[in-house]
Amino acid sequence: MVSTQKKSQVESLNNLLKEKSNFVLIKIGKTTHQSLENLRRELKKADSSLKVIKNTLFEKALNRSSAEKAVFKDLIKKFFPLREPTAVITFSEDWGAGLKSFYEFVQKEKTLSFKLALLDNALYNSEEAEKIAKLPSREELIAKTIGSMKSPINKFVYAIKYNTNKVVYILKIKSNNPSKA
């Protein structure tokens, strides 16, 4: 007989999948509780959350949700059954910041790693998820683009002002030392 606790956990995971469409499954293997708590704090800053899950209960929740979302059927076909202890990181609509903070945490804590990612209704394996996490954020890309657009203008203005600045510099030196003139 199925326990009510397991039913409630499956229901909780099912609700989580309905609310948060972007998530990453991670291997937590031999990670300490203290490390997971530190990771939770880091993810909270990026409006993300971490939940340790049982693989079988997560699969049951996915099976229930697969009627509503076809991407869950693909996820089950490609990645299940899951092995090793697992946790799920759920993101807000802007998943880039949460993914980046997890990746930076993984660089310090080597016992954690990606299993798979579901971002914007697209599935990614562990290698692809890591590549996405390494990418600069949207804000960084915008800043770089604006900087590269502004750079030629700055160089052009500098080139125009160069000769006049040199003349002004020479005249200033001559005015400070009239004896050498």
Any overview of this molecule?
It comes from Candidatus Roizmanbacteria bacterium GW2011_GWC2_37_13. The protein folds into 2 domains: 4-135, Alpha-Beta Plaits, CATH 3.30.70.1730; 139-180, no CATH class. 61% of the residues lie in helices and 14% in strands. The mean pLDDT is 80. It is elongated. The longest helix has 39 residues, at 138-176. The protein has a 5-stranded antiparallel β-sheet with strand order 2-3-1-4-5, sandwiched between helices. With 181 residues, the protein is of the alpha+beta class.
TL;DR?
With 181 residues, the protein is α+β, with helices and mostly antiparallel strands. It contains seven helices and five strands; from the N terminus they run H-E-H-E-H-H-E-H-E-E-H-H. Strand 4 (113-119) and strand 5 (122-125) form a beta hairpin.
Number of strands: 5
- By DSSP (H or I, 4+ residues per run), the number of helices equals 7
CATH homologous superfamily placement of the largest domain: Ribosomal protein L10, N-terminal RNA-binding domain
Q: Which ranges are low-confidence, i.e. pLDDT below 50, for 5 or more consecutive residues?
A: none
Shape: elongated
Strands of the biggest beta sheet: in what spatial order?
2-3-1-4-5
The total tally of domains equals 2
Q: Which series of helices and strands comes N to C?
A: HEHEHHEHEEHH
CATH class of the largest domain: Alpha Beta
The largest sheet is: 5 strands, antiparallel
Gap between N and C termini: 104 Å
Mean pLDDT score: 80
Kindly estimate the percentage of residues that lie in beta strands according to DSSP.
5-15%
Q: Based on helices, strands and strand pairing, what is the structural class?
A: alpha+beta
